[in-house]
Amino acid sequence: MAETSGFPAPGTGPSPATGTERGPATGTLRGLGVSPGRAAGRVCRMAGPPRLPDPIAVADPARELGLALRALETVAAELSARAKKAADSEAAAILDAQSFMAADPELRQTTEENVAAGMDAGHAVDAACAHHREALLAAGGHFAERAADLDDVRNRAVAAVLGLPVPGIPDPGHPFVLVAEDLSPADTVTLDPGTVLALVTERGGPTSHTAILARARGLPAVVACRGAMEIGDGTWVAADGTTGRVETGIGEETAAGVRREAAAERRRLAASSGPGRTSDGHPVELLLNIGSATDLGGGVEAEGVGLFRTEFLFLGRRDAPGFEEQVAAYEAVLRAFPGGKVVIRTLDAGTDKPLPFLGLPEEPNPALGVRGLRVGRVRPDVLDVQLDAIAEAARACGSRPWVMAPMVTTAAEAAAFAVRARERGVTRVGAMVEVPAAALCADRLLRDLDFLSIGTNDLSQYAFAADRQHGELADLLDPWQPGLLRLVGGCVRAGRAVGKPVGVCGEAAADPLLATVLAGLGVTSLSMSAPAVAAVREALARRSLARCEADARIALDADDPAVAREAVAREEPA
Ligand code: PEP
Ligand code: MG
């Protein structure tokens, strides 16, 4: 099958297609609020992959062939039309590439052969896609990454043959609350924030793709919401991405009221500005999480960049970006904050961010394997070129970036990274705290480092032994877990003892209420995606440092995250 241009591989697909118009007429569902804000509208569920019925004996092969080929043509045309309407070039490239797959002459030929061998249209398309999927997987690397995109083409084509709704993001022709089992990265890049009012998913956790993308786009989102797929299409609901509550069957008037209130809240937040401060002036830097300089285009006021995820420059490529290309990418970000803080994270590859050119072997437990800084054990050259490029970009714009390594686990690793980075001209060197062992030895790490930044997404995963994409374990991954907050508290104490900054750059920092708890624990900066900044700034400004500290004690002493959240919310200033 012909190769198509690069785009991210979708993760797990949604569940099999469900019927319509069922489930609770009115009531409240509870999930985890992962992207703050309220929205109300009619539900539109994302149809899952169609189930193929048993094969039928074919009486009219010409008819079956016509059905199968028309389905593939329809899918190619649909995807191409969506590419033309796509909000950005990344989404357009993904959709165009999938359209080419559906129109691929080899796929068509295999489908024809399958019908000639006696298959019905649905099974002919399904088997043709399965055949080419195997070929892609066998080719490995970049080709293997296309397999999930072919699955999506298969689902669409089989649905077309069977006359079922198109799987993927629906397009009901009006704004809607999108309800899904879960969303893949490919689904999420095609979301149109103009029509999707909020996301509610049955699965997914606080650090899942759905959550991260929703926050990046400022869309209210509730994940791990059991029963969500039971809500009938067209039902009016109100979703609260802060509390995780989804009210069903509310009626059009109530929905209009929720929308008015949410719009007023957005206007109020849009007017907020200035550095992060508690009501009595205690500073907590508000920083941005970005993947490239283009993420800085939204005009959000922040005090700098707290997490520049440089791996986005490396993803989906056959070769590492060269020195010059890297220098240009780092310079673009440094120039956006002349004299301001910019924290650059060195390449964080492995597990959910595979980089074929690294040539890393397959591992049975990739999350526990060679990832983050550990990649430097097998490919030290890649880290060295990156450090050189960062140092060169800093020289070129006369700035002193803060440079940190991901997945640092021991004091020895921290010391070795510090030596290596300083030798290559980096002057402020730090580490992400993402592994419990690093949190427990924060004082030792800080002997050789200038700062720490806590990655609560991975720290949750490793402290609670729960895969961060695992929706069924969302309660363990809740950043309000007192066990996680205790690890944060330990890092902060270590930083205070030697007067070095300790920030949080995981998704926990984007939850306004939890941000005040983190401030009360003593973190010096909070880094988040741009749409979260205003609400966090506002939450800090409403509380004194003493109130934040009292809230931190309440949260640390709670028995579980829900109790912690509710107890702190009860103390909300009027
Ligand atoms: C984290 O683990 O909290 C983090 C910020 O890194 P990432 O989400 O990129 O793994
Ligand atoms: Mg991480």
List keywords for this structure.
single chain, 574 residues, alpha/beta, Glucose Oxidase, domain 1, Enzyme I, Chain A, domain 2, TIM Barrel, 3 domains, eight-stranded mixed beta sheet, eight-stranded parallel beta barrel, binds phosphoenolpyruvate
Description:
With 574 residues, the chain is of the alpha/beta class. The protein folds into 3 domains: 27-47 and 170-268, Glucose Oxidase, domain 1 (3-Layer(bba) Sandwich), CATH 3.50.30; 61-162, Enzyme I, Chain A, domain 2, CATH 1.10.274.10; 272-570, Phosphoenolpyruvate-binding domains (TIM Barrel, Alpha-Beta Barrel). It is built from 21 helices and 16 strands. It has helices at residues 61-85, 89-102, 105-116, 121-139, 141-144, 147-162, 185-189, 209-217, 252-270, 323-336, 375-378, 380-397, 411-423, 436-440, 442-448, 456-463, 482-498, 512-521, 533-541, 545-557, 561-570; strands at residues 27-30, 32-35, 38-45, 176-180, 196-201, 221-223, 236-240, 245-248, 285-290, 304-309, 341-345, 402-408, 428-433, 451-454, 502-504, 525-528. The chain has an 8-stranded mixed β-sheet. It has an 8-stranded parallel beta barrel with strand order 9-10-11-12-13-14-15-16, surrounded by 6 helices. Helix 10 links the parallel strand 10 and strand 11. Helix 2 crosses helix 6. The longest helix has 25 residues, at 61-85. The protein starts with 26 loop residues before the first strand and ends with a helix. Residues 1-23 have low confidence and may be disordered. The structure holds phosphoenolpyruvate (PEP) and magnesium ion (MG).
Brief digest:
The protein is α/β, with parallel strands linked by helices and about 575 residues long. It has 3 domains: about 25-45 and about 170-270, Glucose Oxidase, domain 1 (3-Layer(bba) Sandwich); about 60-160, PtsI, HPr-binding domain (Enzyme I, Chain A, domain 2), CATH 1.10.274; about 270-570, TIM Barrel (Alpha-Beta Barrel).
